[in-house]
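My current task is to audit a protein record that another person submitted. Alongside the sequence sits a line of tokens, each denoting a local backbone shape. Where you disagree with what is written, explain briefly why. This is what I was given:
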Amino acid sequence: MNIVHVLLGGFVVLLFHIFNVLILKPKSLRRKLQRQGIEGPFPHFYYGNIPEMKRLKLQLHSTTTTTTQDKENHDVCVSHTWLSTLFPHIQKWTKQYGPMYLFSSGKIQWLMVSDIEMVKQIIMYTSSNLGKPSYLSKDMGPLLGQGIFSSNGTIWAHQRKIIAPELYLNKVKAMVNLIVESTNIMLRSWETRLQSEGGVSEIKVDEDLRSLSADIISRACFGSNYVEGKEIFTKLRDVQRALSTIYVGIPGFRYLPTRNNQEIWRLEKEINSKILTLINKRMKETQEQDLLQMILKGAKNCEGSDGPSSSPISRDRFMIDNCKNIFFAGYETTAITASWCLMLLALHQDWQDRVRAEVLQVCGSDPPNADMLRSLKVVCFTHYDLELNISNLSCNCITLSD
């Protein structure tokens, strides 16, 4: 009889916990913002606003038709209004509820801020009270783990103390020669292809720029070349693709043995194993003073947790997660930015001519170095203008529940 009472009590506690997570807590958070005049679409108790987001995207794809006939008669046009194409729900809800509104993704409550001045204030807010949402280390755990991009509290402070000095300006300047060397290898491969194919060749620039970005990160941060880290980069990208097909915040979904989840689990194990192999190899070799070596040293004093509900991070987990964060963040963002810059320069011949003339004037026949970069005014302005255009189109999302 006592066992029955215990099981019944446990079942009641479980039901209350589920009721609190799915209904009470989200409703409480939404009421707090609604009292401040912030509204949003009404969510489903389990899926949140995910069904409506899916519906809007399918509706957009069904109404948007691309005509391929007489394609050569039309000028190439690049639209900067990518936000409405990729995230139609943002455009719809912004018109309906204003520049600040609330929506849900499963149990996660999101505060969407599309007012640029408010976004700037949020970015400038440096207090650790804002913190990182827990979905980064849970739903996105296979990609980010408890690395510097997803951790909080003492672990984050310890990671930042280790990693930030390695990315100071004087350290980055020392990497310029390495960056030039890797870039020259890529350019020579393009020239070789053009010569072998009679002066005309189809080159997938974005793929080559990803390889270039990976090679630079491997050399600068981990003391290895792209060949050694190629499988890690490839598998990280595969994990990213797999995670992009799921919606974060749906309770319990990441534990289900679906085909996609099983693929993610398999890739995560392989990535962790390969990073550990890279780490063990470094430990046996000459100790180079690069970012990897600083991570290895910092792992000796890594015991801690993100908060009272988090378990301590192990030494191996500390090393693996931070390596994954550096591999992924630098690799993907750098390659995408470089691809976008080259595409815009290709579309705007006048700016391409100005940039080329300035580089030839400042650098001549010599490879660029850190001192030359400050004299490249047009190049810096072009990069700043690109960042400004992207920031003006961006929104900022804050998660309100963990």
Q: What stands out?
A: The beta strands are 100-105, 108-113, 396-399. The chain is about 65% helix and 5% strand. The first strand starts at residue 100 and ends at 105.
